[in-house]
Amino acid sequence: MRQEVVARRKWVTEQQFLNLLGASTLIPGPTSTELAIYLGYARAGRLGLVLAGGLFILPAMLLVLACAWAYVRYGTSPQVASVLYGIKPVIIAVIVQAIYGLLRTAVKHWRLGVVVLLAIALYLLGFNPLIPLFGLAFAVMVVENRARLGPRRGSPFAGHAVLAAPVVPIDPGALVPAAAGGVSLAVLFLTFLKIGATLYGSGYVLLAFLRDDFVRRLGWLTDRQLLDAIAVGQFTPGPVFTTATFIGYLTGGWTGAIVATAGIFLPSFVFVAIVYPLVPRLRASPWTAAALDGANAAALGLMAAVAWQLAVTSIVDPLTGILAVAAAVLLIRCQVNSAWLVLGGAAAGFAAKLAGG
Fold it and tell me: How many Å apart are CA 169 and CA 190, to the nearest integer?
């Protein structure tokens, strides 16, 4: 994006680009998508906001939709099963690489390290991901700004922009129950709307929310299907959030895919439209900065917890163990493009199937 809109087209200056990138990390949702939306807004107002965001999402959505159709039609064939068998441990390695890369940035001091461990513990104890995400972010905000708190200062939030949890239902199914024996499109939309409106950090934090909602709470997916969905979202170009398209298709067909995609991306458009005029103030607020640090550390903990749980279902024998370790080493030490490793894992899984007869 920087090469295209700063260097080549000169639509924004370097500093404007950095300001918009910083603002993208301060609101829930996929950073890359929100940066595209911000740049569209800066270039052409509200129409640019809609066009830039929509056209950034559309190609990835169509690719994932095609993969979802093929998965439903051919996913149970031995050939496809062997390919997915080899891809899954590589995806675990990709998540491990993301955690490793973010650790140095997210854990700036020992208190944030404690936040990571607390987030892991809370998720493994069965708490909804929103509790460690927003609860720990709020705790860090208060602790880091405790010197600003005092009886004569009034409200600690006066005159400061702060992060606040958007008002969305924690359990959309409580409002619109799922249809008996099937999937409610309203629940599907509200669940992805909640995720899009509350998720901070890397796109891989999406794993924690998806597993909590679709595997544990609703029971619409298995761990295997969830990991397959993440694999497709990782392998195809575009934001990892298009995993929602895949899950929507699995649970509700073509309509479900559109509903899920709209639900998870809609909050990004709304947040950008609201926050764009406040970008300078958001970047300057110590309250917002501290809350973001806490949210990022908690998100890292959620990523680690879910990576562990999914590893149990995807690393099932010596070959998948070797694939996971080798991919992690190549990603972290040699910075090999993950798409090549996904292809390599697919080839290894297919070869193992042929060798085993």
Answer: 8
